[in-house]
Amino acid sequence: MRLILDGALPSRFGYRVAVEYEVAGTGATAATVSLRDAFVRWSLAPWSVTAGQFKTPFSREYITSITTIETAERSGVVNALAPKRDIGVMGEVARGTDASLAVGVFNGEGQNAAANRDSTLLVVSRLTLRPISQLGVSGDLAAYGPDSTRYGGELVLEQSGLALRGEYFEQWRDLANQRDRGWFGVATCRIVPWLQLVTKEEAYEHPVAKGTVTQRATTFGANAELPGGRVRFVLDAIDRRQERPPARQTLWIAQLQARL
Amino acid sequence: MPRDVTLFALIGLTALALGGLPARAGAQSSAIPALPTPKFSGYVQVRESVAPARTAPD
Description:
By secondary structure, chain A is mainly beta. Chain A has helices at 60-63, 76-81, and strands at residues 2-9, 13-22, 32-44, 47-54, 86-95, 99-106, 122-132, 135-144, 148-159, 162-173, 178-192, 195-207, 212-225, 231-242, 247-259. The longest helix of chain B has 15 residues, at 5-19.
């Protein structure tokens, strides 16, 4: 469960606080409460500056709420390579919905870690262009000292209830001389206003002690929205494959989301 | 030199947000205006997943 409080402050400032209460289904671990977002934002169109703890601007799938993305789970490459919530300062400029640029400087220690223990800053940026309403192109870049550089790109095509979206990411580690990379592509079709069919293909390749492990997954799913638009039911079947050591798993996920 | 700039910036922006920029040097502080009513939102999510045991590929 996530509870969010946001509002306006004087002098063009606004704020947002989000807290999450999470219970693992096994009962073996205790429920947790954690702070997700806590930031203030100053806005003077087309500029804005955000400071506090919030999502770093990297990957559309990561910065999009889990209540909005088409599948129950984010892609493996996004979970592995995208920088997550962090404490920092970010500047944004937007030209309507045609173009936007976000550049942020963060501690690089992750959420709820107030101190910068290694005195290294994480710089994250994202450029989004939408030359026509049916086409979107984005680029992401994240640098964390000399040891980790992550970059990626995104392509979105949308027309009449059909959508194709794909992202590709790489991470280069200078010191370890290692490269992680992966991609995903998702296709959606809205059959009727309340029902959407989804298929996703993804791959994530990362080095291990002996060679490289490649993980692939194929998802077929359906999203049904109840009248009122506040309740969504997601049903996904995921086929996961891995090479070296070989393994295969089929996972069924049923998820109910109610927006408050 | 410590590079924990983000905490410094957060404190500064929060102070500006709560206090506003002073109109001029030496101006007397006025009463704190009432804030707009915050907007409350969120979501509840329940998930059930079933995963048969991993098997070697065909």
